[in-house]
Design brief:
The chain is an alpha+beta fold and about 160 residues long. It has one domain. Helices cover about 25% and strands about 35% of the residues. It has 4 helices and 7 strands; from the N terminus they run αββαββββααβ. The protein has helices spanning about 1-25, 45-50, 120-130, 135-140, and strands spanning about 35, 45, 60-70, 75-80, 90-95, 110-120, 145-160. A 5-stranded mixed beta barrel has the order 3-4-5-7-6. The longest helix is centred in the first third of the chain and has 22 residues, at about 1-25. It holds the Pfam family DUF4920. This is DUF4920 domain-containing protein. Keywords: Signal. InterPro entries: DUF4920 (IPR032577).
Length: about 160
């Protein structure tokens, strides 16, 4: 009986901790920081990023852009708007050390980290599409790997 009661308390504690972690993500208001503390000084726009890659197809620094999507599961990644019909830029977070709130969509942010041009497999594209809440039909249309820009951010600050 003691083991059953102990197990029940352990389950309740784990559930409470997971709910508490999800609700601890601060709302996306101007000035709110996520991850490493940064400022917007010397940030380049997403448009300029596309022309700022070195010989090794990488860029390190600050990038400013508008958030167009956030992972629906727990805010584990966001995407930044690009000009025209170009695919948004995927932004993940160093070591999944922090997450983004759902209300960050439409906000202008600055991220500091490393950007690179890389190829994303069909499997990962489908995984990301699922996390964004896309329909099964949309996911089924993903059949080829794609080359795109990806950012791993150490820190994020909401600008407006």
């Amino acid at each position: 009986m003691k083991k059953l009661v102990t197990l029940l308390f352990a389950i309740i504690a784990v559930v409470q901790l997971s709910i508490a972690q999800q609700s601890e993500i601060p709302s996306a208001q101007a000035g709110v920081q996520y991850g490493k503390k940064i400022d917007q000084t010397n940030a380049i726009s997403v448009g300029k990023l596309e022309n700022s890659f070195g010989k090794d197809s990488t860029f390190s620094g600050k990038i400013e852009g508008e958030v167009v999507q956030v992972c629906k599961k727990k805010g584990c990644f966001i995407t930044l708007k690009r000009a025209g019909d170009a695919e948004p830029i995927m932004v993940r977070f160093t070591d999944y050390a922090y997450f983004m709130p759902q209300d960050i969509v439409g906000k202008t942010i600055v991220v500091e980290g490393r950007a690179k041009i890389k190829e994303t497999s069909v499997e990962w594209q489908k995984h990301y599409a699922e996390d964004l809440g896309k329909s099964k039909e949309e996911i089924a249309k993903i059949t080829k790997p794609k080359k795109d820009i990806s950012i791993v951010a150490d820190g994020v600050v909401v600008v407006k």
